[in-house]
Amino acid sequence: MQMFRNRKTRSLAYQVAFIVILALVVFGAVHEASRKLAAQGMTSGFDFLYKSTGFRIGFSLVPFDPFESYLQMLWVGIANTIFLGILSIILANIVGLIIASFRISSNGVLNDIGTLYIETFRNVPLILQALFWYAALTHLPPTKQAYSLFDAIFLSARGMFVPSLNVGGQWFAAVALALLLGLSTLAWFSMSRRFRRVKNRGTLQFVIAGLTLAAMVGILAYAREPGSDIFSVPELRGLNFRGGITIPPELSALAIATAIYGGAYIAEVIRAGFQSVGKGQVEAARALGLSSWHVFSRVHLPLAIRAVLPTLINQYVWLFKATTLGIVVGFADFFSVISVSINQSGQTLELIAILMAGFLIMNNTLSFVLNRVNKAIALKGTQLRT
């Protein structure tokens, strides 16, 4: 009993006891669930992942047909979720930056527009906005009467048809990934304190941009079929368009809704960042003869983003989780394909565990990457003085 008088020993004992009790509860729950499933003639395990699904998916970034396995369908859902999540974050950032600029503007009209936007879209539930945009997009004209832009982009009730690179979906994703990595490297190199004193920074940035472009061109040259055009332009043939990329109304509705709704919250975060920048720094930039655009892009905006990036990371993770609303408009995101798989296979516990693990991995990966960026560009010590 003498050792329990030590505070550290008691704390360690309490933690061990808690872990043991938690493990027993989890073990008991799993055992009871297995017993109930066995009593109803249901088998547990993950062998069902290799069985054929027998149904189609409307939108898929990776090849999929009804004879594919549940495992392949889950990969389709994960790819769609990642694509929609990244697209929503990019669009919401653009919208948020514009509205935040309106909110800090000295122009009364722009300021009122920004305020009206915030108060309107932030107080309408995201699910209602998604349903509204889906209804609006599906009530557009049919394909033969589709709206045309430069005879290359067409908008109809079946979706938007736009030109695309004449390569497979996996190669297009590889090109997009190469571009994303290149831009991320340039942004990190430009904003990190570690490389501020590196000589010939401009030359090194040019080399990074050149390598990124070379990687993208190399992927396209390897993936393109011999004799085919590099671009595929949609053309009306019969009752539908052929060629290019078809953006279904489900994806468009979710992207628009999350961009508008998420942009309203991001705008307020960025506005707080703008207001946190000291007036002395802005006035010093103007005193050096910088133009209004250079003051905004090189002083005001970078300092604002550095100040509010931790809060923005929370908004990005939230937007990523908001992709689960795809089920309300029929978009095949991760949550949607899990729901369909549960109805088809009956493997509820296994599929819910996969869903939880998938979102934990995706969201923690996003948080880890952005936290590393925040650590690299964060202002510390005397840099915080205005």
Q: What is the CA–CA distance across the termini?
A: 57 Å
Average pLDDT, all residues: 82
Order of helices and strands: HHHHEEEEHHEEEEHHHHH
- Tally the beta strands: 8
Percent helix, as a range, is: 55-70%
Class by helix and strand content?
alpha+beta
Strand order of the largest sheet: 1-2-3-8
Main location: membrane
Protein name: ABC transporter permease subunit
Keywords: Amino-acid transport, Cell membrane, Membrane, Plasmid, Transmembrane, Transmembrane helix, Transport
Subcellular location: Cell inner membrane; Cell membrane
Helices, strands, pairings?
Elements: H1 7-39, H2 70-103, H3 108-121, H4 126-138, E1 147-149, E2 153-156, E3 159-162, E4 164-165, H5 169-191, H6 201-223, E5 231-232, E6 235-237, E7 240-242, E8 245-247, H7 249-276, H8 279-287, H9 292-321, H10 334-345, H11 348-377
Antiparallel strand pairs: 1-2, 2-3, 3-8, 4-5, 6-7
Helix pairs in contact: 2-3, 2-7, 2-9, 2-10, 3-7, 4-7, 5-6, 7-9, 8-9, 9-11, 10-11
Structure in words:
With 386 residues, this protein is of the alpha+beta class. Helix content is 65%, strand content 6%. The chain is built from eleven helices and eight strands. The chain has helices spanning 7-39, 70-103, 108-121, 126-138, 169-191, 201-223, 249-276, 279-287, 292-321, 334-345, 348-377, and strands spanning 147-149, 153-156, 159-162, 164-165, 231-232, 235-237, 240-242, 245-247. The strands form three sheets. It has a four-stranded antiparallel β-sheet with strand order 1-2-3-8. Strands 4-5 form a two-stranded antiparallel sheet. Strand 2 (153-156) and strand 3 (159-162) form a beta hairpin.
